[in-house]
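Progress narrative, work stream C.
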Amino acid sequence: MICFAFLLWVVPTTAMNLTYSQLPYRLNSIIGSLAGSWAYLFTPFLQVSLSCNRFYVLYFPFGIKILKRVPVTNLSISSAILIVTCVCSIGLQDTCGYVYDPNYFTWRPEGLPCSDQLGEVIIFMIFVLTFTSNSFNVATGARLLVNKMVGMNREEANRRRKRWMIMFTQSVIQDCLHLIDIINATWIWKLSDELWFQFLFLTLSFVVIYTIDGVVMFIFNADVQPAWFRKVIQMQPTRSSNVIIVSSKASTSNTNQMS
């Protein structure tokens, strides 16, 4: 959604040399709310869900009885959509939106009390979501480092542990991207009055984090990489192997039956 906002709104309006006053205010506000607030805030909620899912699988491999009949995935996505929609609907009010200003080539709040307060709420939510997601990631990483993998040889255990640590690193990087961008868009851009500096830490930072997010997924997931790319970064695809764990109780039972 954010990429489409740049492609179908930012680029045409900038190319036509339109000023901020020439843009249709309502359309500009709606696009800003969808791309600059809704999609921007919804992504960290998904990251929290993914981190929580990995935490749940490692710490509760057999599941929690109460949650087995609950559609947790659908419930979490629906809750995220509802929360983000409620927060971002405030931005549809007059003088409370997040708009694109071609005069300065930047996305910005409207600079009035309502938009400033909404911006503070979004900043707070980004910090909380990033902290929550990385808390799950740290707990997951600790579990991988401490726990001993049973039912497989050392080589297989090391390979699987390495794969999980790669996923852990990927998650941490992706979870921090929005935090870095919100810091750029809130404080860093104010360090200079130069237009190029503000463009770099506002508009460019806004779109680059999603490019980096895609690049990170591309680098850390060998299954989607073409052969030439794997040769460049010297990463070889790993083959999945099935591990059969035989419990001692079952073995004893079978031995007794045979005797």
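Work stream C, second folded protein:
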Amino acid sequence: MKRRATMLMIVSLLVVGCRSSATIEPAATSAQEDPLPNAGLDLAVEVVADGLVNPLGLSALPDGRILIAEEGSGEDDLSAGVSMLMPDGSIGRVISGLPSGRDSGDLSGVPLVGVSPDGTTAYTAHFGSGRLLTVPVGRLSIDTPLGPDDLSSAMRPLNSVTLTNPFDITFDGAGVPVVSDASQNGVAIETDGGTTRFFHRFDRLENPDNPDLSIDPVPTGISRVDGEYLVTLTGGCPYPPGSGRLVAVDDQRNQRTVVEGLSMPIDVAVDEDGAIWILEFARFEEDASC
């Protein structure tokens, strides 16, 4: 999956017509049955920052600053990191020097950034880090960017149980980090001892172009709603249209489908009115390499 972008935009691609509650009801069997033009929304696209190096993850701070995870150049260098967009529109790196490369052709840098519910700790990670990296929010400054040696660790490996490709982060009701891992095809949580435990693994998905074949689920975006976690399953190569899903899981290994028929969904968020927003890549060039 190719993820290349040089501008941060305010843009939403799909609204699922359901409301968050203790139980999230399935919104539609297929996103194609309820296209965006029928959602009754007047959407606009506004560029709020440019010059970024393959930005992927976002997290807002309580004071209006926005943290942006950047995958970097993908050239086996140290160009990945986290930038911060200030309320006045200025922007700069706050964490630099993290590795950026490629994994089977995909960019593999820094896909996620998150902030603890109490607003005191920032979390990030890079491909192959095996853990989350943390720093107090109060230390983040565009004037003095931090390096790898300035960061602490969370969700450390527990024997062979480790994060490989941490893609997105949310938090449980007690503020404990919960992470989707796109390579491990699962969702992990930090234990009381600060290590990693996977509490859910996803089965392979059916390829709608060939029911005799299956594809990797590739969990990407994650967002908590009460006792469940909404997770976008992007679906693996060759990324057939309509193979992606939005599912809800809990820490008891239960899983149910909320929306199917999506095309490469990579993120999910719930707004203050309870509407669920899904971001999709939408299509993959048929002759492109996996």
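The first strand starts at residue 7 and ends at 10. No further action is required on this item.
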